[in-house]
From TrEMBL:
The keyword Ubl conjugation does not apply. Belongs to the FMN-dependent alpha-hydroxy acid dehydrogenase family. The lineage of its organism: Eukaryota, Fungi, Dikarya, Basidiomycota, Agaricomycotina. The keyword Oxidoreductase applies. This is FMN hydroxy acid dehydrogenase domain-containing protein. Its cofactor is FMN.
């Protein structure tokens, strides 16, 4: 770009558009389209059957997934705003990040690509976006941290009822530089997901994905106590079963647990933030604040846990109204485009978490696929800010949106 017209700015994600166009001068083009529906179809063709089913399955018949993608909010662009020096950066929990977009915690990445979480952690560091590792991840905590380098990283906890194991996981995360803890509330056990069940599609029960457990000293003791040997391939399915049955155990915790867990994490981490993920009701948001949480993630687990539930964007405004001045609110579920990011920020979220997009990219082309998908999303968002007349993240508010009553459809795919 001519610097006399567009002054240099960092980061300038919009330039990725030109980079893609310029491939034509080499007789080439990007490896795949990041249009969400086409990306999803290509991922279906690229992944193994089990990988595709696990990535795409929703609770029940998918009502909640559809609710996440119903586009009733519309952006109102403003004209003749000088956006040439616009800024996508923001601060999140003391980290200056290049955009209010985080890598959502996704489990068992090895079923999408052999390197699994290493791919996403590396790209997140390159882009200076927060990376969130799931307890159900399929690479050791320490290895993911190494791949993430000096990038901001958070740890998503599935809380076992084995307190010694809980302590070990939290300490390993902190020692590995994960300085924000996010407890997911909505997945004590998996929802009824028809196609996964019909195909007995559960990687852990097949001995795949227990790497965080296998590298944990407490869980290694539990394996030994059970007479299981990780060196014996025949024991791996039982080890995988034992690990995930500790993590997604089917026995819900209650609000009594939260102040104790907050206190524990604060002691381990010298006071770093603790969040709850899965909040869908204003009263639960208030309880989170009362329990000492620094933030919440408004999320319905991308429609994967409760069929027929509200879309997360539907409830975001009332949750922001209830606690938006008392804690940091992140948003998750249904983010596919720059417009989705913009709408969530306009409705009061500090940042969004993106999951399925980069999982599909990983399934198509590994690390390069993750990079292409996320750089495309960032460019889409940056360019949308330009075209909508918004100069910086803090300028995005509800005045830029209109809600259309009774208008549905899947405009955001």
């Amino acid at each position: 770009m001519d610097p006399s017209i567009q002054p240099t700015r960092e980061p300038n994600y919009a330039l990725y558009q030109k980079e893609c166009f310029l491939l034509s001068q080499q007789g080439s083009h990007p490896d795949f389209s990041t249009r969400p529906d086409k990306l999803e179809q290509l991922a279906k063709e690229s992944l193994t059957k089990g990988g595709w089913l696990y990535a795409s399955c929703n609770a029940g018949i998918g009502w909640t997934d559809r609710a996440n993608r119903e586009g009733r909010w519309r952006i109102i662009p403003r004209m003749l705003v000088d956006t040439t020096a616009r800024d996508t950066t923001t601060e999140l929990f003391g980290h200056k990040v290049n955009a209010p977009i985080c890598f959502a915690p996704i489990g068992i990445n090895k079923i999408y690509h052999p390197l699994g979480e290493i791919n996403a952690a590396k790209v997140a560091q390159e882009l200076n976006l927060p990376y969130c590792l799931s307890t159900a991840g399929s690479q050791p905590i320490e290895d993911v941290a190494k791949a993430n380098g000096n990038g901001p990283r958070f740890f998503q906890l599935y809380c076992p009822h084995d307190e010694e194991l809980e302590d070990s996981l939290l300490k390993r995360a902190w020692d590995s530089g994960f300085d924000v803890c996010i407890l997911t509330l909505d997945t004590w056990q998996l929802a009824w997901r028809h196609e996964d069940i019909a195909n007995s599609n559960y990687a852990f029960y097949r001995g795949i994905g227990a790497d965080i457990g296998l590298t944990d000293p407490v869980f290694r003791k539990r394996i030994e106590e059970a007479g299981l040997n990780p060196e014996n391939p025949e024991d791996m399915p039982k080890i995988g079963e034992k690990w995930i049955d500790n993590v997604w155990h089917g026995k819900a915790h209650t609000w009594d647990k939260i102040p104790k867990l907050v206190k524990k994490w604060k002691a381990i981490s010298n006071g770093r933030p603790f969040l709850l993920k899965g909040i869908q009701h204003p009263e639960d948001a208030r309880k989170a604040v009362e329990a000492g949480c620094d933030g919440i993630v408004v999320s319905n687990h991308a429609g994967r846990q409760v069929d027929g539930a509200v879309g997360s964007l539907e409830v975001l405004p009332e949750i922001v109204e209830a606690v938006g001045d008392k804690c940091t609110i992140l948003f998750d579920s249904g983010i596919r485009t720059g417009a989705d990011v913009f709408k969530a920020l306009a409705l009061g979220a500090k940042a969004v978490l993106v999951g399925r997009l980069w999982v599909y990219g990983m399934g198509i082309s590994g690390e390069a696929g993750v990079r292409h998908v996320m750089k495309s999303l960032l460019a889409d968002f940056d360019i949308l800010m330009n075209c909508a007349g918004v100069n910086k993240i803090s300028d995005i508010d509800k005045s830029h949106l209109r809600y259309l009553e009774g208008i549905g459809g899947l405009g955001n795919m």
